[in-house]
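retry 2 of 3: previous attempt timed out while embedding zinc ion. Reduced batch size to 1 and resubmitted. Inputs unchanged:
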Amino acid sequence: MLTPSSVEVLSPAGSPESLEAAVRAGADAVYLGGSSFSARASAKNFTDEQLRQAVEYCHGRGVKVYLTVNTLLREDELPAALKFLEFACSLPVDALLVQDLGLFWLIRKAAPQLPIHASTQMSIHTPAGAKFLYEQGMERVVLARELSLSEMREIADGCPVELEAFVHGALCMSVSGQCYFSAMLGGRSGNRGMCAQTCRLPFSAPGGTGHDLSLRDLSMITRIEELRQAGVCSAKIEGRMKRPEYVAAATAACRQSADGLPPDPFLLSDLESVFSRSGFTSGYPDGKLGVSMFGTRTKEDVTGATSAVFARLHGLYREERSRVPVDLFLTVKAGEPVCLSAQDEEGHSAQAISDILPEPAVNRPLDQERALAQIQKTGGTPFLCREAKCQLEDGLSIPISLLNRLRREALDKLLEQRAHHTPIPFSAPCLQETPHEPKQSLAIRAFFASAEQVCPEAKDCEIIWLPLHTPLSQLLRLREEGYPIGLALPRAFFGGEDTVRRLLSERMEQGFISTWSGNLGAVAVARELGAELHGGFSLNITNTASLRWLEDLHFSSAELSFELTLEQCAALGGDIPRGIVAYGRLPVMLCRNCPAANSPAGCKNCTQPPLLRDRKGADFPVQCTRTGGYRYTEILNSVPLTLHDRKREIRGQDFVVFRFTVENPVETGNILRSFTSGENMLSHYTRGLYYRGWEQC
Ligand SMILES: [Zn+2]
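retry 2 succeeded.
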């Protein structure tokens, strides 16, 4: 039974102003990024000095600070990232949020005492995935936003890792960490905090709404108790790019809800005025997908945010919130300086001592009641008086202003003490790596979305990957015919882990032991069953440290991220065999909602990939996978990537991967054959990011 006793209100702090708004509106914790390596590159973020002040400000007030370094990191960025984390450990922050597998592997070694949270960018959506990360040292998992409450509950029941879930804010169409759309169209990678919000542009599915990639914002603010019941210990508000008024409104409403009160309806209405996309949705937590989840920002949405609303919301954080319980004790004795001591729950204590002595009272002596009333006045400070006592000798008098001064001084000193925590030990790991040298000539592997696409040329491949759900009879027949078959585990299987486990163990009994995993949940199941592990492109491997971690986990090979340039791919070290995608319509999004299902016909027509059309008339095939046990949808790029005529420029790789998605068996054969001759037969194609790379932050 892993139901947390309370839910933490976790607020975004994209700037020092938003941080103050969050804390004053009642956040238990905030998450923020430094000036680099943060998934919201265009939020203002914090310089090192601002970060130090932010941590002191929050710790003084009993608020936790989670530092986001949740982007993919290039090899050359790791030394600076670690230097930054050394600084973060000196403050120290309360936890680090990571996406990059290599950074996780390194920081575990460098600072084993630093709590690590798996960013939602790690795409964790299954019980085994969460459990695997917990066993690898992750203290908390930020769940994928696509999960239903009952799926969250299953994850909570599976292991004691802390679960954090989004409670309010924007929803991406793609599973976070699996979106390559903005990167492929313009080099602005969502995995680098540079998302250009491509999905908010008009994209039309047949019979759809015209904005078939744009989801409404999530709101579960009034239902935090249901999140708690589902095993969630932290309710995360999205919006590091949003203004302080928004942060304050969302935080204040969540505070009320987390405290078991119905949120003020006027506050909720102001929150909606400040930002919404045609209202809100709870489609994912309720497990009700479909067209009602979609929406765009309308004129009414934009004009709702009047200056009157902003002024009202500003009132939520104009003043300090008295929140830290404190005990106060006053001593007034003849011939001794007056002493006020303040003590918090964490055992800090501070004293303020007067420079004058109490005098014998001429008129009315100081009495207990008046003394207590005076020292309890903690309004305007972060403190809330829990208990006040005084030891008072009769017949003495002191100025009331002295009591006020002592109270302020004692509380200031206590705040100062609370602000400083013991640094977390950090020892810099070695990052010396030399580029990998392949032991053999370049092998070819091919992924086929279905067994019908398999062509005779594929027999010469090192491995051909077929989807796990390919009928066993087909797998057996193809193997009989001499095809070297491996099983591609699904890139997403929300709620379908038991099916994946069953299908894989049935196939392993028949000798199919090679597995391709494109997410950590699949890795976890494959490891559990003792399969041979191969890492897929969507594990987002962009540095040697990530490859080293896979080596530790006994992977047999790994595909590198297609967000790297060829040059960056060639420079990676490590021993594990690795390869790159050299052909295919890259999946630019991985979705739980099928955009084609926005048509009244639903997914009926998804057997023939429907096309999603953008403003310029480019068509993106929608590849919708529907099996009995799991379902997901990939949006494929409008043009295939190819390196057919650039073979000689592929260096440092053991293999290349062909990803066949919508091609027929004649086409797959031609494409495999023409690679050997180094001929590019395509007139419309892309090189992806292999030459241009990421746009710089
Ligand atoms: Zn569909």
